[in-house]
Amino acid sequence: MQNANEQPNSSENKPVEKWLYVFAESSGHLTSTYGASSSWSLMYNLYPDKLLGFNLVNETIYNNQTSWYSNVTSSAQAFGLPFDSNEATTAKSHWTLFSAGTVTNPKTRDSLVSMIHAAALNQNSFVVFPTTYNTSNGSHLGGPAR
């Protein structure tokens, strides 16, 4: 059994890397639906790997995701990226911030964070800042951010 403070060896990383490469194989970014290269989702679930330094995910995956985020943020709605390709106008502030924590380029990270900041400053809706909101007008769709 491995000590919790030790880095996992390369053979333990193989299942994670195989899974990730299957979902990034043809599209250059991680997809949310197997075999659908046009599908995508914010990869917030990679954040613990970065935060805790497990290094289960190859840096190439992070670099590819960062490039992809950089490309899509340039044409994103005023209040951010949708959280998934199936939800074209729905943003999730927490997913976006966790995703921002995984990128390898500070400019891309700052773009993601600034979209959340713009939504938080939005005065069109006088409610507690939501976790889920509309990407184009910032209107509340669900859940207060706590």
Automatic annotation (TrEMBL):
Pfam families: GtaA_6_Hairpin (PF16335)
All residue ranges annotated as the Glutaminase A central domain in the record: 18-145
Domain of life, per lineage: Eukaryota
InterPro entries attached to this UniProt entry: Glutaminase_GtaA (IPR052743), GtaA_central (IPR032514)
Matching PANTHER family: GLUTAMINASE A, GLUTAMINASE A-RELATED
Full protein name: Unplaced genomic scaffold GYMLUscaffold_17, whole genome shotgun sequence
